[in-house]
Amino acid sequence: LAICQDEAAVRKVDRPALQRWLVSLRSPDGGFRLHRGGEVDLRASFCAAVVAAFFALDMDAVFPAEARTYIVDSQTYEGGFCSCLDGGGEAHGGYTQCGVAAAVLLGVAVPNNNDGAGRTLDLQNLERFCAMRQLDFEGGFCGRANKLVDSCYSFWIGGSAAMARACVAAAKLQR
């Protein structure tokens, strides 16, 4: 709908029903399912954040504190993001982009804006994770430690690095 730039089509969307559907996909731990009965992971949280932001839904209703905390808690010790709260998942480029973008859309990426429990992203560690994904020999990016480069990670890691840099700049402005 955004690409079509058809405001009439956007207005036809039943926003209350859309919001109820998104909330129905939220799991008790705050994550979202990709579909009814589907797996819970950060991709779904990102998609829900994009849809909620695009349609100007009630972000607090769709993303209460536990849903915001789910995103923040998906950041690993490496600085990137893992797929879900599974007790120590490995950070991955694609999930990192989803996590950072969702955090930005929800306003929990920058200090002074937090998940409701006082936590925010570790931006310094995130920048380090992104920088460490570029390999010397090939010059390209990998999605995880000790993996080969792939062109798709230029998008995922490059986008994550750009968002991290913007968040660091915003944090400096808040001081």
From TrEMBL:
Cofactors named for this entry: Zn(2+)
One Pfam family hit: Prenyltrans
Domain Prenyltransferase alpha-alpha toroid per the UniProt entry, residue ranges: 1-166
Recorded superkingdom: Eukaryota
InterPro entries named among the record's database cross-references: PGGT1B-like, Prenyltrans, Terpenoid_cyclase/PrenylTrfase
GO MF: metal ion binding; protein farnesyltransferase activity
Gene Ontology annotations for the cellular component aspect, listed alphabetically: protein farnesyltransferase complex
Alphabetical keyword list: Metal-binding, Prenyltransferase, Repeat, Transferase, Zinc
Family of this protein: Belongs to the protein prenyltransferase subunit beta family.
Identification of the protein by name: Prenyltransferase alpha-alpha toroid domain-containing protein
UniProt organism field: Neobodo designis
